[in-house]
Amino acid sequence: MTLKICVAQLNLVVGDMTGNAEKIVAAARSAYQQGARLVLTPELSICGYAAEDLFLRQAFTDACDDAVKAVALALADLKDLSVVVGHPTGGDQRTRSVAVQSRFNSASVLCEGQVVATYAKRELPNYQVFDERRYFRPGQGVCVFEAGEPGERIQVGLLICEDAWFERPALDAAQAGAELLAVINASPFHVGKGKEREQMMRQRVLSCGLPLVYAHLVGGQDEVVFEGHSFALNADGSLAGRAPSFVEDSLLVEASQTPAGLQLLATVAPERTPEADLWDALVLGVHDYIGKNGFPGVLLGLSGGIDSALVLAIAVDALGRDRVRAVMMPSPYTADISWIDARDMANRLGVRYDELSIVPEFEAFKATLSGEFKGLAEDATEENLQARIRGTLLMALSNKFGSIVLTTGNKSEMATGYCTLYGDMAGGFAVIKDLAKTTVFRLARWRNAHDPYGTGQAPIPERIITRPPSAELRPDQTDQDSLPPYEVLDAILERYMENDESIEQLIAAGFASADVERVTRLIKINEYKRRQSPVGIRLTHRSFGKDWRYPITSRFRA
């Protein structure tokens, strides 16, 4: 007896219930032709994840209900096919001050035109980027349904994402007669998360004694990326199959009854390096943010430095050279090697490249302010003027031609405020906002050694990677004039910001007290800047975004 299961690893669009339903139907029909009789789609597949406060609108839930019915009707002629779709159910009672939740994060089993079972998620995550208790109530009970053709049916226990991270829901499904666990998911990517999921699900199958199929979402949604990496585990914890990461896929899993019990078998995508995951997450994040929001292309300021070089390479891999424009905007302090390297890189990738000198505008600003600044030495004010002129020019080009501006600041800069409000922070999407500077260098070297999208070998000139980083806003400037060495800064940032270690713990770990006090103070006083920064791709388990919610006004010394 064999049941063929299709894991439909889909890239869905939040709020596009009609389009998502059509994608689910197409995947289910294709799977049926390949012999599948059970199709699993991701968590909240009907509406996309996460819809945030759209969940609070009853019209949104009503549209999801209509889409579920449409999918069921469209697949009604496929005999013995069970399709699991995720969608919100219920509603709430709301006033301006009070909301009484009666809404659930649900999954329904569709078969021959009918909704034969519905299950509500029991464990609601409310940490990191998750905010599910704002929108949903915990479900209760168990859902075990039959899947397969007569005489070959298997009892399937249905779980939704966080349910499988706890022991009780899986045990309850096993006690209710489940022979197999089907887990549908939408869990945002961060480095190493795929291996964490596999290990946690391995614990789950060993504790309940059942094999498991894990169906995961793929795609970019605002600041989060879902990497796919769906998989199947046998009851002994062995890996039975794995889908590729960062692409849509239909993973076909065969579940066969053997003397030793139910055994799963599927193809296994190879293990990946952290750098490959980071690169594909960045590329997918840019591709989907631009594509799903309808921008015709992107433009960025190409400075001849490492950050803008990395962003340019990501953008070309994500969108192709024809949808990417680079603009070099030299100032009186721009070194010759900067525009030489910028031209070189633009030529290697084949993108449109323009040079717009900001010298006339800079001199005009200084002339206008000369009376106000009389007798005062030049300082960061004049440095920031240059950044703001560049931001204005880029935004003018964006307004005129419709392309969105990609900002190029990294996490180390965002943490310490080493960026200019309304200057280099001006733009629509902050691609490397969650990449520490040391990781920027590592990823640049990785991209020069790999060409995963066939857009060009070694796109980043070696000198861009090896020269000391500089904002080039005053003569002979380097980043380390204003910041500790990036190796020190990034280590403090990871432990303090991402892992919540205290100042005292950092000093006890061997970091110089002056460095710790300086970096943590900069993180604190620059919260107001980060609140005004563009949304950017989340790559670590704690990014400056939904993961980080600190007050601007605070006197607490963490």
What would you say about this model in short?
This protein has 558 residues and is of the alpha/beta class. It contains 16 helices and 20 strands. The chain starts with a strand and ends in a 28-residue tail after the last helix.
Number of strands: 20
Helix content bin: 25-40%
Low-confidence parts: none
Percentage of β-strand residues: 15-25%
The class by helix and strand makeup works out as alpha/beta
Task: Label this structure with key terms.
six-stranded mixed β-sheet, 558 residues, single chain, alpha/beta, 16 helices
Descriptive account of the structure:
This protein is α/β, with parallel strands linked by helices and 558 residues long. 49% of the residues are buried. The protein is built from 16 helices and 20 strands. Helix 1 runs parallel beside helix 2, helix 6 packs parallel to helix 7 and helix 13 packs across helix 15.
Q: Which helices and strands occur, and which strands form pairs?
A:
Elements: E1 2-9, H1 17-33, E2 38-40, H2 58-74, E3 82-94, E4 99-111, E5 114-120, E6 144-147, E7 154-160, H3 167-175, E8 180-185, H4 193-208, E9 212-216, E10 218-221, E11 224-227, E12 231-233, E13 239-242, E14 249-258, E15 261-265, H5 274-292, E16 298-301, H6 306-319, E17 324-328, H7 336-349, E18 352-355, H8 359-369, H9 380-401, E19 404-407, H10 411-416, E20 429-430, H11 437-449, H12 462-466, H13 486-498, H14 503-508, H15 513-525, H16 527-530
